[in-house]
Fold these 2 entries.
Entry 1:
Amino acid sequence: MAHNIMMPAFKVQRDEERCIRCGVCVRQCANNVHNLDEDGWMWVQDDKCVACHRCAVLCPTRALNIIEYPLDFRGNQHWTPASIREIYAQAQSGGVLLSGMGNPRTYKNYFDHLLINASQVTNPSIDPLREPMEMTTYLGNKNHHSCGEKPQLKLDIPLMFSAMSFGSVSINVHKSLAVAAKSLGTFWNTGEGGLHPDLLDFGRGAIVQVASGRFGVHPDYLDNSAAVEIKIGQGAKPGIGGHLPGEKVSQDVSLARMIPAWSDAISPAPHHDIYSIEDLAQLIETLKVATRFEKPIAVKVAAVHNITAIASGVVRAGADILVIDGFRGGTGAAPMRIRDNVGIPVEMALAQVDSRLRDEGIRSQTSLVISGGIRNSADVMKAIALGADAVYIATAALIALGCHMCQMCFTGLCNWGIATTRPDLTKRLNPHLGSERAINLLAAWKHEMMEMMGGMGINAIESLRGNRLMLRGIGLSKEELGLLGVKGVGE
Amino acid sequence: MKVVAWTEYCLGCGLCEIYCAAQHDGYNGNVLKIFKKGRPMHRSRLLKAEQGTWLNTCMHCTHAPCINGCISGAIKRDPNGIVYVDYERCVGCYSCVMLCPHGHVRPWSERHQVLKCDLCRDTGLPSCVANCPNGALQLVD
Amino acid sequence: MRYVIIGGCIAAMGAVEGIRSIDKKGSITILDGEQRGVYSRPLISYYLAQPDRFKNLAYRSAEYLDHHGVDVMKGWAVQIDRSRREVVLHDGQIISYDRLLIATGAAPFIPDISGIKAPWVKTFYTIADVEALDSILTKGHNALIIGSGLIGMKAAESLRQRGLNVSVIEKERHILPRILSPESANMVNCLLNEAGIKTQCGEELTAVNENQANFASGLCLPVDILVLAMGTKPHIELAMDAGLKVNQGIMVDEYLQTSDENIYAAGDVIETRNIITGTSEIMALLPLAHREGYLAGVNMAGSKSCAYEGGIFMNSLNILGISICSAGSLPRAETEFLVWQEDHKYLQIFLDGDFLCKYIAVNLPEVTGPLTNTIADKIRIEKRLWQHFMTSPTLSAFPDVYWQKLRKEANYDYNKCS
Ligand SMILES: Cc1cc2nc3c(=O)[nH]c(=O)nc-3n(C[C@H](O)[C@H](O)[C@H](O)COP(=O)(O)OP(=O)(O)OC[C@H]3O[C@@H](n4cnc5c(N)ncnc54)[C@H](O)[C@@H]3O)c2cc1C
Ligand code: SF4
């Protein structure tokens, strides 16, 4: 097509008084935004800029700044600039709009409408620096009445790294998270892309996924794991499958996934052997047998309208761990319309599922893990108080590794070495630094959580689980408060 | 002590060279000033070989050929084992350039002297190590 | 233990460092015949060119000598009494030793031709030589340098810098005959002429008369100052008189020991094994002098434990901004070579199968370190890799096998973070 009528999304500002023509920006931009010619002229192609900030961060003289392109449309509350630009893009390409990372819209964020309690006089608060604070928790079926002890995952902190497949993210992300998980006494998740041979030693610290594409699934993969997770759906794109573009299927990825190199890796929308709860029960049983009943089996579903009934079915099908991924969950690539319009907030799903499973008397048969947009330790505390046993983080972990949320994961040109498989970009994430940063982040959260628990007068994370009295809603309707099972502020 | 460069994590961004230059010749790390006002001369060099980029720097060898071969006694070792050039004495014969197996010592044509890594001995942690964005450089014993 | 070193220059300093690496207590006495302290010979040309800037010729500082506990004694050794382990000085003083190092270096060769004693005929080897030259030179005068070796060239440069009209006369077919090939000499010659140094080859000095020099071809040149740079001969008289094994230079074993077990020798005064050709020859080079001195020192102080593998020829000289680096030797006259040239830069490498045996680099010093080391360490690098390198000789293009080997030796796997 001839002329593209779309103006750039971002503007790169170069302070000429500061630019020393060192060329770091030129060498670092995988999108070729910056060009330096022999005469010392810089030529900037704003169109290509995705605002990943790589150049600005590395610029040794801070000569670069990136702003939203200042060209305004005539104001219109309905036809926002974004909606106009999306039409331009589709009119140009004729394709589905793709995006990476989680739902960026301004839907109500229930975490931001919940407040945490603290002790005053009537019960003492605890000083975590002086007194023991138990952060360990166990995931798995705790209903030992039926047939003896069930396999459990022991977590030193109620946080795990969520599924991000090798292929959608680089091997160095896996290395960073695997090392961090081991050092923190928790688990990481392979995602649906199999396990890279370099990481065999970290298999025992991994929750390995079995997804609809069954990529990389073989007996040793299942054996060399901490737990197996059946992925039914993902919060960022419930109901649809996955598509790893061929460009990202490098030799390494092809080996780990057991598919031909450079071919598209398509995960079907459903598992073709699961069309009912009974089918799911069969797969769970199969995996339990395959792993000699030594490992918990998790099932991950997206938070959708009927989540309570679905959750009940999944638990009855034998899931030892139920993972609910909310609509803010990240992704390597999703159709933008789905990402932005499908699913429900995980806070609401969690509260409802926890209540439903209790009501049905099956809560002890499963552990609840939630994921999708957890940003900080307060979110974690609120999730646990709403009923979660533990929390998965993904986006927050990537941000710790350097992700700047440009949401261009699907292009494979991640300048931070995260969502890419190109070797020259992958090496930009040194897993020695990456793991250190991931460990730091979680260690910091753990400290904060202990502080908050101490304030509440609680000295064990398990005593907080489902303890909704520790929460109060603010700015929520009666109905919402009811659904969340929390009282309003002042009550 | 020496700086070791891991090609595996070298991005080839070139910040090591830039900060190296800025740390020397009295610019105290002021990148802007040396590039705008001075003549940036980095000591260590980023090589771009087929197999990838890597920083070519001084190994501060135990039996340093440059010290032994320097015709003027300009290359010296300080009490910390750092091999450096005494610019009062260097006459620019380039014997050391010819002798360095790492190809690290290089001519400073403008001044008829030579350039080599001194591990930023006046300022602490070598500037290249401190400023490598990816931990690809490390100071080891 | 009493260590005595005859001669106080490079090899002597190497020895001090070698001895002190093992024996921190023994006394070390240096007999400094020249009475100028520990200085570096190659600096004399810089001194002559810019006396104010380069007046300090010390190779190692006084504090350094002090720190190493070295006693520098002025005195010319005239005799070694091996049975009594004593050295006799010109003034009759007697110095006794437990271990002796002969590091007497060399002296310039002076041909026996008529007029050679004229006051304006000088050599270029010591501080005294330079002072003598300095006292008679006048800007605009004609200076003739006989011999276009390294010393002749450095003399030419400094005299040119002092504003004299300088011509270098060479007996062989081209300048720097021991260092350059005919092709590279041609290029250097042009550059020298551009820089104001005239050259003439194939001329042999036969006589010196009042203000003129005569050559075998009949050529006769007017001259105000004539500098003899026709090669050197080692100071072997002491060793010879003492009955030590001597050839062109003093003969030493691989531990730098002479035929007397208490006497070692190092530097320009000994014959060194050329590791390319395998022959034993005089290799008057500063880096080798230092290394030999060092190893001799270690062996003198401890058990004979450090063997000397020999050396290669290597030279780096800068003449009026023209850099010439060369190392290695040709195992035979017809050795295969590759050439790269661009503007004023030139590189010629000589290959003996998969081994580099010599290179000549003009105005291209950056790549010479690895080249020198490839020769000295006999690193095998396939010819096709050399051919590739020679398409653009930069460090980045240097064959990776070389770097890999270096990394292995430095004990770092650069490719994998530990
Ligand atoms: C102008 C010039 C430039 C040079 N440039 C270079 C160069 O760029 N690179 C290079 O590799 N080499 C160069 N050389 C050669 C280098 O100087 C010698 O290889 C080096 O000096 C050898 O060191 P040495 O200790 O063996 O001998 P020397 O430096 O010759 O020292 C021997 C000392 O012993 C003294 N001595 C001799 N006999 C007695 C005695 N009987 N009693 C007491 N003392 C005695 C001498 O007076 C002298 O001081 C150059 C030489 C000259 C003259
Ligand atoms: S160039 Fe300078 S430092 Fe190097 S050997 Fe010559 S004098 Fe010594």
Entry 2:
Amino acid sequence: MNSAAGHVLFVETPAVRRKLRQEALAKWVFCAMAAAMVVPLLLIVGYLVVRAAPSLNLEFLLEVPKRGMTEGGIWPALIGTIYLVFISLAVSAPIGILAAIYLNEYARDNWFNRVINLAVINLAGVPSIVHALFGLGAFVYAAKFGYSIISASLTLAIMTLPVIIASTREALASVPQSFREACWNVGATRWQTIKSVVLPNSISGILTGVILQVSRAAGETAPVMFTGVVFFKSIERGDLFPYYLNEQCMALSMHLYTISTQVPGVKESIPYATAVVLLALVVMVNAAAISLRVYLRSRQKW
Amino acid sequence: MSAEPNYSITARDVNLWYGKFQALRNVTTNIKHGLITSLIGPSGCGKTTLLRCFNRVNERYGYVTTTGEIRLLGKNIYDPDVSLIELRKSVGMVFQRPNPLPLSVYENVVFGLRVHAEADALRKSALDEAVEKALTEVNLWHDLKDRLGHKAITLQLEQQQKLCIARLLPLKPEIILMDEPCSALDVEGTAAIEELMFSLKGRYTIVIVTHNMAQARRASDECIFMLLGEMIEHSRTEDLFLTPGNPKTAEYIEGRYG
Ligand SMILES: Nc1ncnc2c1ncn2[C@@H]1O[C@H](COP(=O)(O)OP(=O)(O)OP(=O)(O)O)[C@@H](O)[C@H]1O
Ligand SMILES: [Mg+2]
């Protein structure tokens, strides 16, 4: 390795070649694992769609279940899920976002805020069945909302809240500190800074975090089953406002469970079609979240 | 095949583009073996870019195109048979902010050996010896010999920067590139690094980018002045500062711009 050996400098040695082989192997393995992720997804979706095919049409969406739920469509469950998701996020998103702003922008590192942090983290880890029991005790009995849409939505809201707080904090933390310093240095208050600089630059991340909770709220069965969702509810076909908030409703996740396990003689393709609708709902919402993010992100440059 | 033997780096007509923006224009220069050469010039003139050409890190960005020829120790490093792994082993780089790895002092120094050597060549005794040698060379052995197991990031900045230099030495590099190595350090730290550079010179060819003209004057044997991607002047440091050959150099060192 000195200048006398100039003509053989920097060329591959056997050791280097061995390392490059390992490198190629490592890259291959990582890539294969990443690609493997796609396989279960394709299999699940493919299998569901094939089995569901006979029932997949607009009628299925708009029609109500018939003959003891063995035929017909899923309209009451679909609209019920939309109700639940919408109301629960209407409650949890504002609270979660405001709480996250406090935690990220105002809170100092003292015991009070540490306790809040701990609570948020632990709440995020609580299993949904425990949320269900809590919702039953707190909203159905203690607050006397009874078994109702409002109880079920609030339970879902409590469940999604910690995750919304966490994702919002992450979005806020990704705004460079130098932006805030620039604001403070012209004498802006924290609230002015948040309003004019922090929020506009983190809104894409915040919204994505909130929207991704739609799929969780739509998919959970236990919390709503204990607090306000029933097996069957008779409503009009295609009715957009069939439920009052103090009434019980149907929901897709619960409906899927019922027709797959509790009701004998259901037409074979119906449970699969219900699953496809649930999945499609989630995928559509996620796609909306991603496009919104891309759109907002493209307008913000740093 | 090999160029003048006492040149470590010879650059011929080096042009570099970031996308459409040309950052280096026809840079031609010879950097002598075993000396300290400083690169000076106003902000954005391409000092860092030129430095990074010498170990081909610029290529990491996909949109960079380089033309021309850079020979290190007589070998054109843009030849297709050049292995980047071997090249970077011989050309060490020190950055503006000390960047020790989040490991112990000991592991930082032997990191390069672990990356490059065969597993069985890494006997404990050989590693210990390498650590002592490298830390002695950078004047850290005395201070740190009882703290080899400590986390490197808990050291003072000056010690961290020395450690970053020590980390290069076990690989026996030919050339050490430094990009503003003192700008995060205080006066004493700067003096210590400069002293260290003096003690390393001779064995290693050192190229240092600096914004501090006084430092270039104190600490380098030769000096390269760059402006807008072009190399304006390259001569012995005293000559460049006392009798600059180009009026632009004169204006810069008098502080008319920069
Ligand atoms: N990764 C990059 N992509 C695009 N342009 C770049 C990139 N890095 C540097 N440049 C541009 O190339 C020119 C030279 O940059 P370079 O960093 O080499 O300057 P410099 O002399 O080191 O400046 P400074 O003294 O501020 O460190 C500058 O105009 C810079 O904007
Ligand atoms: Mg630079």
